[in-house]
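Please fill in the sequence for the structure shown.

STRUCTURE ENCODING:
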């Protein structure tokens, strides 16, 4: 089962010493990117049946990311 421990383990494996840093590259934290133009179409789920919905501290982050993609002319 995927849980918060699994999530932290994966992020630590990906980021190493940068785990928890505020200035992550957009490839590691795409929602923090300032330019979302030119991205391929994205699938973002925030419905009640989506298994990672409650993983985020706030599902509004997913909606904000989708809105940022749309504002940059992308498809989500």
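FILLED IN BY: designer on duty
SEQUENCE:
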């Amino acid at each position: 089962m995927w849980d918060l421990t699994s999530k932290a383990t994966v992020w630590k494996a990906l980021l190493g010493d940068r785990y928890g840093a505020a200035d992550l590259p957009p490839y590691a934290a795409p929602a923090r990117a300032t330019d979302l133009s030119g991205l391929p179409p994205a699938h973002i789920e925030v419905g009640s049946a989506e298994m990672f919905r409650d993983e985020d501290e706030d599902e509004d982050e997913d909606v904000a990311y989708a809105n940022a993609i749309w504002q940059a002319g992308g498809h989500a």
